[in-house]
Amino acid sequence: MTIWTLGSINIDHVYRLPHLPQPGETLAALDYSTGLGGKGANQSVAAARAGARVRLIGAIGPDGGQVLARLVALGVDCAAVARMQTATGHAIILLDAASENAIVIHPGANRAIAPQAAVAALDAAVPGDTLLLQNETSAQAETAEAAAIRGLRVVYSAAPFELAAVRAVLPHVTTLALNAVEAGQLTAALGCELSDLPVAEVLVTHGAEGADWHDLGAGRVIYQPAFAVSPVDTTGAGDTFAGYFAAARDQGFGPAAALRLAAGAAALKVTRAGAAEAIPARAEVEAFLEQRA
Predict the structure, then answer these.
(1) How do 77-83 and 53-60 pair as beta strands?
(2) Was 274 annotated as part of a binding site?
(3) Which GO terms describe its cellular component (predicted)?
(4) CA–CA distance from 195 to each of 69, 191, 216 (Å)?
(5) Any known ligand binding at 42?
(6) Which terminus of the chain faces fewer neighbouring Cβ atoms within 10 Å, N or C?
(7) How far apart are CA 122 and CA 216, in angstroms?
(8) Which domain covers residue 287, as residue numbers?
(9) What are phi and psi of 66, to 5 degrees?
């Protein structure tokens, strides 16, 4: 099958600092680098590195040729990525000595995706395919609705958390993916429990504490602990988890096996600097998991 990703494509600007700055504080960076990023790009690369066939629906500006070439080199089909005059999205990523981060995003072309173009890209999709999306683009609700009508599994990472965006997409979602903070924000805003959400599945990640998969229909929960590693850069760890999990389910894995594969991929990712280009390949993840059996 195919995983269709409606997702952001960013040029990442990464600054390593002795600590994250306080309000009004000016710091000199210890190091600076640029690379491919954006939640959509990260998730697309993760799914492709997991062995899935991935087709990305997105947009770049005149300055995005290099990041687009990197996506293609990493196995992502970018035929549905639009070229616009609006600048490519970019992110300012601050990393401290403990590898914690603070991120500022300029959406750029990611927020200029026309709903009709995104929906039209799904004309080649077939029932059983997957749509993987998040909150860094325009056209999420329209594309999710079109995917659900076409019989696709809709996996939605509700990040960055925006209540209005979640409300619009939620009726069309199969699997809702959140981190623990986002899950708390959503249930508080809706005044409900996690088990009351109108979706079939909820995936909640807890960082170094692992992840939970909830089958809301059956009332079943599967917990996957995180693998202990020495982190270098946590940027993109959640996206790696989401992309690998979606790919594993697309390949017929049960939730427990998909969780373990995704946890292994996320663990390896945080041992490497960078975002999309630091996501490990499937063979590396399987070798890591064999060592941790």
Answers:
(1) parallel
(2) yes
(3) cytosol
(4) 42, 12, 6
(5) yes
(6) C
(7) 28
(8) 2-20+28-291
(9) -70, -40
Q: What is the dihedral of CA 126, 276, 138, 81, to 10 degrees?
A: -60
DSSP code, position 279: P
pLDDT one-digit tens code per residue, 128-174: 999 999 999 999 999 999 999 999 999 999 988 999 999 999 999 99
Q: 104: number of CA atoms within 13 Å, CB side?
A: 5
Instruction: Write the pLDDT tens digit of every residue in 188-244.
Output: 999 999 999 999 999 999 988 999 999 999 999 999 999 999 988 888 899 999 999
Which residue bears the tokens 């993109």?
236
User: Looking at the 3D structure of the chain, how many domains does it have?
Assistant: 1
Q: Is 40 annotated as a binding residue?
A: yes
Q: Provide the pLDDT for residue 181.
A: 93
Catalytic hit among 31, 77, 129, 239:
239
Are the CB atoms for 34 and 66 separated by under 8 Å? no
CATH number, residue 81:
3.40.1190.20
Token look-up 């173009």 returns 117
Query: Is residue 205 annotated as involved in ligand binding?
Result: yes
Q: Quote the Cα angle for 246-217-146, to 5°.
A: 50
According to the annotation, is 101 in a ligand binding site? no
71 to each of 12, 54, 125, 152, 215, how far by Cα in Å? 14, 11, 21, 23, 33
Active site residue 212: no
CA dist 41 and 118 (Å) reads 16
